[in-house]
């Protein structure tokens, strides 16, 4: 009788001191979940690329594409994390003398650990892959664009230098040059005057930046316009005012376009973050639940 009691006490001490975490099963489940997740992401990317084409006008809208991508991401987490959790439950150690509530808690924790470790592994691999792909694509595109731009720029700059050497080219300079051309348009051919063009361009650029044109600049530009375009002083004054108003409208339109693009990028970031959160939450629940399923199957058919 005494020997039996001592053996039971020894068994209880061994059961109590044994670790409740089977790290081997957790790591195995996380690796499988990560690999399966990457495979499904690659499949989804392939399907997404097949569904769109620059030559087709029937491509899905950005909103539709975003919803489908988010739904696919949720499905990836559901199946990949569930598979990893199930494997962790099946491969864990047996807890023969542990209460079923404690076993349920441990299985759920195993599934949660599989999901957490798998998410870290998948995020690291995806970040590395995306970085490598983006770097390679940028390098190839940059080389091609640089070669084409160098050839085109050489001809454009040479032509601009011959025609109007003092006028800035490209970007804001090209836009300001366009409004300078509007100032001096005439019904008859006029002689080129690079110095006058350069002065008018600088006045327009400074006025556009400040949002106002001084009376002295308006008067000087009106005299230049009246002299070169053959207009009366009143018509020259009106042209200067009209051109300046159009330049301000163009500036406002460009600023609004930049704000619209920034707001679209912000909304995209919000949607991506929300979809990612929902997908990860689904993955955590799936891994935890499937770990309990795997653990229950493992206990019904114990493995020595």
Describe this structure in words.
- The protein is mainly alpha-helical.
- The chain folds into 2 domains: 22-135 and 268-300, no CATH class; 164-255, no CATH class.
- The protein has helices spanning 2-17, 23-51, 62-91, 100-163, 171-183, 194-210, 215-229, 233-300.
- The two termini are 29 Å apart.
- 21% of the residues are buried.
Structural features:
0% strand; single chain; 2 domains; 8 helices; mainly alpha; 304 residues
Lay out the secondary structure.
Blueprint: H1 2-17, H2 23-51, H3 62-91, H4 100-163, H5 171-183, H6 194-210, H7 215-229, H8 233-300
Helix pairs in contact: 2-3, 2-4, 3-4, 3-8, 4-8, 5-6, 5-8, 7-8
Short summary:
By secondary structure, the protein is mostly helical. It has helices at 2-17, 23-51, 62-91, 100-163, 171-183, 194-210, 215-229, 233-300. It contains 8 helices and no strands.
